[in-house]
């Protein structure tokens, strides 16, 4: 049996070295507006960017308190 067949049977994922991540057009401390999802029309500040997951952690004001939410970068619009 080949190594890839054995790994498939055992449920072991092979690391892909040629993985390319989409470039996320946001940077830390940038003000953004949420365009989709449960936080639509909320504005917030980017705290972290996760290019490997395509996500951005944004701090929004919810009931007058800063709340950190993780959103897909396609759900955001920069100013």
Short description:
The protein is mainly beta.
Structural features, described:
The chain has one helix and five strands. By secondary structure, it is mainly β. The chain has one domain (18-78): SH3 type barrels, CATH 2.30.30. A five-stranded antiparallel beta sheet has the order 4-3-2-1-5, with no helix packed on it. The radius of gyration is 18 Å and the shape is elongated.
In N-to-C order, the SSE pattern is: HEEEEE
| Broad shape | elongated
Content-based structural category? mainly beta
**CATH fold category name:** SH3 type barrels
Low-confidence stretches: none
Strand content: 35-45%
* Helix content class: 10-25%
Please identify the top-level CATH class: Mainly Beta
Describe the structure using short key phrases.
single chain, 79 residues, 5-stranded antiparallel sheet, mainly beta, SH3 type barrels, elongated, 10% helix
Topology:
Elements: H1 3-10, E1 31-34, E2 43-50, E3 55-62, E4 65-72, E5 76-78
Antiparallel strand pairs: 1-2, 1-5, 2-3, 3-4
